[in-house]
Amino acid sequence: MTQPLAILAAGGTGGHVFPAEALATELLRRGFRLALITDRRGTAYRGALGDIETHRLGVLAPVGGFGRKIASGVSLVAGVFAARRLLRRLAPQVVVGFGGYPSLAPMIAATRLGLPTLIHEQNAALGRANRMVARSVATVATSFPEVRLMPSGVGARLTGNPVRDAVIALRDRIYQAPAERLSILVTGGSQGASVFAKVVPAALAALPDAVRARVELVQQTRAEDIHAVRAACAQSGVSATLAPFFADLPERLGAAHLVICRSGASTVAELAVVGRPAILVPYPFAADDHQTDNARAFAAAGGGWQVANDAFTPAELAQRLARLADAPRDLATAASAARSFGRPDAAARLADLVASLAGANGHTERAA
Fold it and tell me: Which end of the chain is more exposed for a tag (fewer CB within 10 A), N or C?
């Protein structure tokens, strides 16, 4: 039986790479051959993507001054020609893009070669690279029911945003509303978020003594902030576990009564799959303000509460935490709503689309 070849094209940040890795794992289970096209950052990740054939394109993102934008345009044209040669040689049955500027050249080349193509959008607002090819691909797979900036007339299919197997494994862990203790997980990405380092300890210090005594804090904190956060927690008597990175973050997510975090696409997807209520503070400088769209959708579904970065103050957070600590039923209701918003089968749904396109090309058979 012929093994179909799927090319995955993704930008080098985790938000693009992680769903690509989840899809890669599912496609490998189905007997696909895979190759990845990315940039230098994307080659640093391990897991399923670290084990497949990888090709790197040196396309510059159009950020910075006029000269950088000119250089970016030139590199994109060169990247399209390089991707075209690569795709002709590899002859894939389907090409899947995950956004990010490094995905743009291979997706443009694939559409011009007439190859079956699909893009996946992780956020509730269509990213810039995906917007540039959305009208040319066969399908746009989305992670949210509504996606802002989607061009009219584009065929879209809701699949959800694939998450790691370690997160899916926690899907059936029943949420236990807080009683004697209140476990709060604070995460701001692999490097932490400085706003959380400033606001969270001050908010906990402002809580009533009886509430503060119940708090068990697990906070992802930048290395340069960790000593100040530890000192502030010790001074207010808060039990705190702090680290710049938690290798067992999914497990800590499953143990949390409440999460305080940014609203990147992967974060929101993991909260929903596990079913944990969250206070979402969108990163205000995200491209096209997409984190606000993500947070708004999650909050509208009842899974948590959206707080603008400027409004995220110690006084506001303390007031909200004190109210939630006395309303465990509200937390349980939000947890249930978050879980209903989750799509644990997102990787399988996306793989079904990929397999359908590959089969439509007439060259492949699906693995038994």
Answer: C
